[in-house]
């Protein structure tokens, strides 16, 4: 998983057509931190990850899709995949209830 997150972040950013410096300017993260996250030198905290994704107009589903493309979903059956998606939706619901920005609505 250590290598998957940085690669997924890079993929999501490339698909969005955004440079690291753009993320830094839009998110309040330093360019050094954005680079560290994408280079695997640091793992982003939840608020930093929200800021990163919000700065490129993406959300956790986009990040999960990128992770799945890299590593494949860690499930063996359709039922497990459905359960994993349900858990993901529940987590997003908790984030929204706590007013943690998780999607394109992040400033």
CATH architecture: Orthogonal Bundle
User: What kind of oligomer do you see?
Assistant: single chain
Number of domains: 1
Low-confidence regions: 103-107
The ordered H/E elements are HHHHHH
Q: Judging from the principal axes of the Cα atoms, what is the shape? A: globular
CATH topology: 434 Repressor (Amino-terminal Domain)
First-to-last CA distance: 29 Å
Count of alpha and pi helical runs: 6
- Rg (C-alpha, Å): 14 Å
Number of strands: 0
- Biggest sheet features: none
The first-level CATH class is given as Mainly Alpha
Mean pLDDT: 80
Strand content: under 5%
CATH superfamily: lambda repressor-like DNA-binding domains
- DSSP helix fraction: 55-70%
Structural class comes to: mainly alpha
């Amino acid at each position: 998983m250590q290598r998957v997150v940085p690669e997924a972040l890079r993929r999501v950013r490339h698909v969005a057509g955004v440079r690291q410096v753009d993320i830094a300017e839009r998110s309040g993260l330093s360019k050094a931190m954005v680079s560290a996250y994408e280079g695997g030198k640091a793992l982003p905290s939840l608020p930093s990850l929200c800021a990163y994704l919000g700065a490129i107009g993406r959300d956790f589903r986009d990040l999960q899709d990128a992770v799945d493309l890299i590593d494949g979903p860690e499930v063996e059956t359709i039922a497990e995949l459905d359960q994993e998606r349900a858990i993901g939706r529940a987590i997003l619901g908790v984030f929204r209830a706590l007013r943690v920005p998780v999607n394109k609505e992040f400033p």
